[in-house]
Specification:
The chain is of the alpha+beta class. The chain contains seven helices and 18 strands.
Length: about 350
């Protein structure tokens, strides 16, 4: 005879009598047993590595920041590993405290894209699962601290959308040069690289001479046209590694990595001459305008952004005081060891 408090299979179909309840069997519920964090990492790694044939992998791919600091930043992927992290020298620089200096790296291995955690404090996660190393598939989310990146096809509509978002965040709307925020980030990054490797770095600050009378006489629309035309001239002279920006009003700046003082001055003189030789249409008539340029390079007393920009500004003010339409170099011992005039 069955025990009074346990129902037989035949009695399960019958309703319980008043005051009677089913017994609770103390056993492990169905499903996988809990895993420690290290086991989850190993399991995720095995899953990512074994699921390759069933996962969609784009022919050319990139990673793009879709949440957090550096929204819209993108890194195209190839066989050389792309290091992502907070360090100024990371290939994809994400300046957020939750991201390690060297958080992870991503690269292409034949037809496969791989990701590897670099011992980050906040473990690298793919689709919210911690990974030590694994493969990536189109659409995967990569979480680094409080920032999220997405692995997508380089030519996808979504990649182009994120690129447009990044352009809006980093470009000056009027001139399409970089904006001040992006420029200051680039200066910090290049100063860190130059000081670590002992390389030269020069900043040029450019100002349009007598620009206020142009706005007063011809209006701000005409003044905007002058700034756009000047930006076009600047673009003709900068190299791919240079950073040209509009940093405010009629003031522009160009950062010249791997450039000593002599070459920077030659660059500035060519730019100044090109602007002076160009025609700016104001009030229906061609007009001549000029620029003044201040130059400063890294030196023992200017190894941060504020000091470098201040030195270039001092040189610019001197160019203005000495009659405009000229290039001046801030005095002091430059990194190249040459005494400036």
């Amino acid at each position: 005879m069955p025990l009074p408090h346990v129902r037989t299979p035949e009695s399960l179909a019958q309703p319980l009598t008043p005051g009677c309840r089913r017994a609770t069997l103390h056993q492990r519920p169905p499903g996988p047993s809990p895993m420690r964090e290290t086991e989850k990492i190993a399991t995720t790694q095995r899953t990512l590595l074994s699921d390759g044939p069933r996962r969609s992998t784009p022919r050319s791919a990139c990673v793009v920041v879709i949440h957090g600091e550096g929204l819209g930043k993108r890194a195209d992927l190839g066989e050389v590993p792309v290091v992502i992290g907070r360090s100024q020298e990371a290939d994809l620089h994400i300046p957020h405290n939750s991201v390690s200096r060297r958080h992870c790296q991503v690269w292409r291995d034949g037809d496969i894209y791989r990701i590897r955690d670099l011992g980050a404090t906040n473990t690298t996660r793919v689709n919210d699962e911690p990974v030590a190393q694994g493969e990536l598939a189109d659409g995967d989310h990569i979480t680094l601290g409080e920032c999220i990146l997405k692995f997508i096809s380089h030519s996808s509509v979504e990649a182009r959308y994120h690129q447009e978002v990044y352009q809006l965040a980093t470009r000056d709307a009027l001139t399409e040069l970089y904006n001040r925020r992006h420029f200051t980030e680039a200066v910090d990054r290049e100063i860190a690289r130059a000081t670590r490797h002992g390389r030269p770095l020069v900043m040029c600050i450019i100002d349009v001479d007598l620009f206020k009378p142009v706005n007063d006489q011809y209006g701000h629309i005409a003044g905007d046209g002058v700034l756009r035309q000047l930006a076009g001239i600047v673009r003709r002279f900068v190299r791919g590694e240079d950073v040209a920006a509009r940093i405010g009003g009629e003031e522009f700046a160009v950062l010249l990595p791997e450039t000593d003082l002599e070459d920077a001055r030659a660059f500035a003189e060519r730019l100044r001459e090109a602007v002076a030789a160009d025609s700016f249409v104001l009030g229906g008539q061609p007009q001549r305008l000029t620029i003044s340029i201040g130059i400063a390079g890294l030196a023992p007393d200017r190894l941060d952004r504020s000091a470098l920009m201040r030195a270039a500004d001092v040189a610019l003010y001197r160019a203005k005081d000495e009659g405009r339409n000229r290039v001046c170099v801030q005095e002091g011992l430059l990194q190249s060891g040459v005494e400036a005039e």
